[in-house]
Design goal:
Layout (H helix, E strand, L loop, with lengths): L8 E7 L2 E4 L13 E9 L5 E9 L5 H17 L5 E6 L5 H6 L28 E6 L5 E5 L11 E5 L3 E6 L5 H18 L5 E6 L7 H8 L12 H5 L8 E6 L2 E5 L14 E5 L3 E6 L5 H17 L6 E6 L5 H5 L18 H11 L25 E8 L2 E4 L7 E3 L3 E9 L4 E9 L5 H17 L5 E6 L5 H7 L1 E5 L5 H10 L12 E9 L2 E7 L11 E5 L4 E5 L5 H14 L5 E5 L5 H6 L20 E6 L4 E5 L12 E5 L3 E6 L5 H5 L1 H11 L11 E6 L5 H4 L7 H4 L5 H11 L20 H8 L17 H8 L28 H4 L21 H14 L19 H4 L21 H8 L3 H5 L3 H10 L4
Parallel strand pairs: 4-5, 9-10, 14-15, 18-22, 20-21, 22-24, 26-27, 31-32
Antiparallel strand pairs: 1-2, 1-3, 3-4, 5-15, 6-7, 6-8, 8-9, 11-12, 11-13, 13-14, 16-17, 16-19, 19-20, 21-32, 23-24, 23-25, 25-26, 28-29, 28-30, 30-31
Helix pairs in contact: 1-6, 1-8, 3-18
Length: about 950
């Protein structure tokens, strides 16, 4: 039996006009003579629940039983607080949402309770050859049709289930995605009706008797003959587009409401309405309506469908305040309403009373929602960062000491490479300051897109706006300072041409910074207007002019905030002592610099929160979207483009088989999605956009899928070819795609920048100072300090790797990386350059690291590639060639190693990895 989504799923069957709870082992089994009620409860990120109520009517169910199911559904909704969306489901025409609960399909069996049919398990029945038609790109509607050649056509997918073999016949006009989805049904039939033991064959429309499997297929139909075309009714369906009608349910009657424009104001809270859209019908129930009114409206809708013989119309019932997006979209305008958040306690008393009388049991569905957690970046923070400032239509690489200082009038491009689960990951992004000019924003996107194309779309691309950055951006930079003004040529020219004052930050001028963050790997200092109203009791601030430095400590701040402001002082004003100001005990000098006292806020600045993800398939070039409910990885088809909407940011996922031109338009697709705002959630045009290519998905994307198999996205071929190979082979998919190469860098070596990543970016050795300490303390600390070492009142943070690599040697790390001099603007090589000489040393080093290399007390350097220490450091002007840049220390002679590290190799490799890296960083070997 296939697995239903058991969490929050409850099913009842109507027996003798009463609901009877079904055991979970029977979920997904439906009988044509029965009616069922299905309740799906989903816990949302905002702490509330979403309820979807479906009543399913088999084609042989009685009208009385169907009416009972409809009424009981209304009563169950009332017991849940009156906020569920109700769906009328008819066998063979179920909504896609319902079908996603029972992937890959629903295949009702004959019989039912009322008929006294004796249900027999499918595997106990004598096998009967059956023919099914499958329709749908995203979910599959399966319908049994007569086993005859006349049932076949060129437009659909058909599955012929015989005793020894299952055939899938692909109509010549069917699409790749439909064929791939139908294979999931073949797998289900094989597992359910054949206990996984039968052959599978694919037959292409147009292949005649020359193909062995095609010949076997047609022989079962008595030989090949031309196939008929679909009839007009099959192609268009019974329900054609009709004029939208609005009817009011009044004292048992449906009265039409005239309107020129369908507006929200037509709906009154004390009435029920029926919105008839032809293929879809909505029953809207005002919050002030009684249970009897809602039952009456439900019965009226059922009667209208029967009288008009509209067997395929979907009926959705919504409560005021909990309307679906589809319902709202039918109106010309729908006012923004505050989010209604109801806890699990709402309606609990009604549940106990009403459900007891009806025999319903929803025990376990009213549990508390999960507690919100602090957002995690899902990205390794010890990678390699490069930053460019955009100047006109060019970019300028920033030094490692300047790359954490960005200006609100400029645009920047950043590239961050880091170690993922099993390969090197790359994130290329643009950051637009609030005052940056449009021309340089366009240049930034163009330049970054070229970098992604040079990486053969194996890098994730991000478009970020100041104030809307995701946590991945902050963790990438670790320590960041955002200054007023700008340094780019475009910004300077704009200021000059507009006659505006240039307020760009000056170290000698007056400046106020708000310090924020969650730790040493995520901290920022944001320059704000130097006035008292910019203060906030929930933050710490840095204020300086040419001669003095103050720190201001808000009353609502924590010890962590105090630590962050100390660290940011190192980056902003390290040459002067600071004076601490507690809120409420400030000096006159402090207020004088801010122009006097003023009112200010005490509430934390809230950022856009991540919401429950919604996956949409983008239908190009029509620019239409279709939501995929209860999505999983298998919904991502290699031929399509999908958008994952998480509210605070969106992802545009592009399949491997998508046209190359469309791949270059991925960012544009994201922009259009934001403009259309399909979820009507008031998405900002500045919402972060990530573009992701199949096979290169970062963890901060894959985490939204309940289970993610990297092997699936690494396969070649169309989605149909991949699934057919797995189905026929019965083995896990093979992925021969090479691991992602390390991207070539420009201007610096990887190792050089790694040295900057291994500590807080605020601990520059050029800045020696004692911040606001007494002379006695200064004398005491200086006596413990080497002349070349900086004295810090707050020590640099230890490297914190948020997501450690999986155990075992990484083969891409064992091979050395050469040819690291090519520019990012040029095309990248298709494989990782390797050094034969470096490979042996790297392997030996790994053995030593694991403790298998023995003690090197008696070791000599014979057979080892050795270079002088001066040629191995990251700042060398004559760097050693063909070495593993991640293990520079292995090329030191035994004597040099012991001299520099103060220990043997064996002792060094027994240290924790973070401590090894710290020692290597201090020696400029990392």
């Amino acid at each position: 039996m296939k697995n239903a989504m058991n969490y929050g799923l409850e099913i009842w069957r109507i027996e003798n006009f009463k609901p009877v709870s079904m055991p979970t082992s029977s979920y997904g089994k439906f009988y044509m003579g029965d009616s069922y009620i299905i309740l799906k409860t989903t816990a949302l990120k905002n702490g509330s629940f979403r309820h979807d109520l479906h009543y399913w009517l088999g084609k042989d169910t009685s009208q009385d039983e169907a009416g009972t199911a409809a009424i009981l559904t209304v009563e169950l909704d009332a017991s849940l607080g009156g906020r569920a969306v109700q769906y009328r489901e008819v066998q063979g025409n179920e909504t896609e949402k319902l079908l996603t609960y029972f992937r890959p399909c629903i295949m009702p069996q004959p019989g039912g309770v009322a008929s006294g049919f004796n249900h027999v398990e499918v595997n106990e029945q004598e096998h009967v050859t059956r023919l099914y038609v499958c329709r749908g790109k995203y979910v599959v509607h399966v319908k049994e049709v007569p086993f005859a050649r006349s049932s076949l056509n060129h437009d659909d997918i058909f599955i012929l289930d015989t005793n020894s073999k299952i055939f899938q016949f692909n109509g010549s006009n069917s699409c790749i995605q439909e064929r791939a989805k139908a294979l999931e049904v073949v797998q289900y039939i094989k597992d359910t009706f054949h206990e996984g033991k039968c052959e599978v064959a694919a037959v292409e429309d147009g292949k005649l008797m020359a193909d062995a499997e095609a010949g076997e297929f047609w022989a079962l139909f008595g030989g090949f003959a031309p196939l008929p075309r679909k009839t007009a009714s099959e192609e268009t369906g019974e329900d054609t587009e009709a004029a939208v009608k609005l009817l009011c349910f009044n004292q048992g009657n449906l009265e039409p409401i005239g309107f020129e424009s369908l507006m929200h104001e037509l709906l009154e809270t004390n009435k029920c309405y029926l919105l008839d859209c032809g293929a879809e019908m909505y029953v809207w129930m005002g919050r002030s309506t009684s249970l009897q009114q809602r039952k009456g409206a439900s019965e009226a809708a059922e009667k209208l469908l029967v009288d008009d013989s509209r067997t395929k119309s979907h009926v959705m019932k919504v409560i005021e305040g909990y309307e679906t997006i589809m319902f709202k979209s039918k109106f010309n305008e729908w006012p923004a309403t505050p989010e209604l958040k109801l806890s699990s306690e709402d309606g609990r008393g009604k549940v106990a009373a009403l459900l007891k009388s009806q025999g319903l049991d929803v025990k376990g569905l009213m549990k508390s929602a999960p507690v919100k957690e602090e957002p995690e970046p899902y990205i390794d923070c010890t990678g390699h960062l490069q930053v460019w400032r955009v100047n006109g239509n060019k970019k300028t690489l920033l030094s490692s000491t300047e790359q954490s200082k960005i200006y609100t009038g400029d645009c920047y491009i950043f590239q961050y490479t880091y170690t993922g689960d099993d390969k090197e990951e790359c994130l290329i992004g643009t950051w637009f300051g609030k005052k940056s000019i449009e021309e340089e924003r366009a240049s930034a996107i163009s330049l970054a897109s070229k970098m992604v194309q040079a990486a053969k779309f194996q890098a994730t691309m991000a478009r970020l706006y100041e104030g809307k950055e995701p946590i991945q951006f902050f963790v990438t930079f670790q320590s960041l300072q955002v200054f007023k003004g700008g340094l780019s040529s475009g910004y300077k020219n704009f200021i000059a041409e507009s006659g505006l004052n240039d307020d760009s930050y000056s170290e000698a001028g007056l400046a106020l910074f708000r310090v924020q963050g969650s730790g040493s790997e995520n901290m920022q200092a944001i320059q704000v207007d130097a006035v008292a109203s910019s203060l906030n009791s929930s933050y710490c601030y840095i204020l300086h002019d040419g001669n003095s430095v103050f720190t201001w400590i808000g009353n609502n701040t924590t010890s962590l905030d105090h630590d962050l402001v100390e660290r940011q002082l190192d980056a902003i004003k390290s040459d002067l002592p600071s004076r601490s100001q507690k809120e409420g005990r400030e000096t006159d000098k402090f207020w004088e610099l801010l122009g006097g006292k003023s009112k200010y806020s005490n509430k934390k600045i809230e950022r856009e929160q991540e919401s429950d993800p919604h996956l949409f398939s983008c239908i190009l070039p029509k620019e239409q979207v279709k939501e995929i409910h209860h999505f999983n990885q298998d919904d991502l088809m290699a031929e399509d483009v999908f958008v994952l909407d998480c509210h605070s940011y969106i992802f545009v996922w592009v399949g491997q088989e998508v046209d190359a031109k469309v791949k270059t338009q991925a960012m544009d697709i994201g922009e259009k999605f934001l403009v259309r705002d399909f979820l009507m959630e008031n998405l900002s045009r500045e919402t972060t956009i990530f573009t992701v290519s199949e096979g290169s998905e970062p963890q901060f994307f894959t985490r939204f899928f309940t289970s993610w198999d990297p092997a699936k996205s690494m396969m070649h071929g169309s989605s149909y070819q991949r699934r057919l190979a797995v189905l026929k082979g019965g083995a896990a998919p093979l992925h021969d795609k090479p691991k992602r190469r390390t991207l070539a860098v420009s201007g610096r070596t990887l190792g050089q920048d790694k040295s900057q990543r291994s500590r807080s970016m605020s601990t520059s050795p050029e800045c020696h100072r004692l911040r606001g300490r007494s002379p006695a303390f200064a004398a005491l600390t200086s006596s413990f300090e080497k002349p070349s070492t900086r004295n810090l009142s707050t020590p640099p943070p230890a490297v914190k790797k948020l997501f450690p690599k999986s155990a075992g040697p990484d083969t891409t790390k064992q091979s050395a990386i050469s040819d690291l001099t090519s520019s990012l603007e040029g095309p990248l090589k298709s494989t990782i350059p390797k050094s034969v000489k470096a490979g042996a040393e790297a392997e030996k080093a790994i053995q030593e690291e694991d403790g298998t290399g023995g003690d090197d007390e008696a070791e000599d350097d014979e057979g080892r590639t050795v270079y002088p220490y001066e040629r191995l450091v990251t700042t060398s002007e004559d760097p050693a060639p063909d070495i593993d840049l991640t293990k520079r220390e292995i090329y030191l002679s035994t004597a040099d190693f012991r001299e520099k590290f103060g220990m043997t190799r064996a002792a060094f490799y027994k240290l924790p990895k973070w401590k090894q890296n710290k020692l290597k960083t201090a020696l400029q070997l990392f």
